[in-house]
């Protein structure tokens, strides 16, 4: 079998059936330090893990009947095993670069918006959206005239963007009052101290300033 044998075998399995199958291969470098690196190649069919190559095991292991058939074939192929060992070395080469990137905090951008609230005892809802930050840990709070607001507040979890950056959104249901100062306070590792983002600088009776971006 040549180096494309895995994909040839997969094609045979996929298209020998009347119903369509969806294949997805994930190649991952898992690491905690430059000295602790594992290469993991996983094969999913219809979201089910059929098998994987784990560099700590040194061979392909199948988890389903078809996956075990694939494992039996590819483990006989020296070229396949040699390539997987090369993939581990590639992981070890790129891990220091990844760790350097991950050691740097990325400052978030913050946006405040206001909407008419629905199904609420308050007529308005403020949204404090925090985008593109790293690391994941962040603290977002609401202040009214300098004092923390804990009621009528809901927040999402930190949501991954898929590029190692995160976003989250915090919501405050409110009834605007003249002269009242509402602010979203954000604490993050990229800041030397917490930052305040005031909505409209000062809330007016007409509530004219609905969107502010920083």
What is the β-strand count?
14
Give the helix/strand class.
Answer: alpha+beta
Number of separate helices: 3
Per the CATH scheme, the topology name of the largest domain is Immunoglobulin-like
Q: For the terminal residues, how far apart are their CA atoms? A: 58 Å
Report on this structure.
With 214 residues, this protein is an alpha+beta fold. It folds into 2 domains: 5-102, Roll (Class II Histocompatibility Antigen, M Beta Chain, Chain B, domain 1), CATH 3.10.320; 109-213, Immunoglobulins (Immunoglobulin-like, Sandwich). The chain contains 3 helices and 14 strands. The strands form 3 sheets. Strands 5, 6, 9, 10, 11 and 14 form a 6-stranded antiparallel beta sheet that branches. Strand 2 (36-45) and strand 3 (48-54) form a beta hairpin. The chain is elongated and about 75 Å long. It is found in: Membrane. Keywords: Disulfide bond, Glycoprotein, Membrane, Signal, Transmembrane, Transmembrane helix.
Any chance you could write out the topology, listing elements then pairs?
Layout: H1 5-15, E1 23-33, E2 36-45, E3 48-54, E4 59-62, H2 65-74, H3 78-102, E5 109-116, E6 124-133, E7 138-144, E8 147-149, E9 153-155, E10 159-160, E11 166-174, E12 182-188, E13 195-198, E14 211-213
Antiparallel strand pairs: 1-2, 2-3, 3-4, 5-6, 5-14, 6-11, 7-8, 7-12, 9-11, 10-11, 12-13
Helix pairs in contact: 1-2
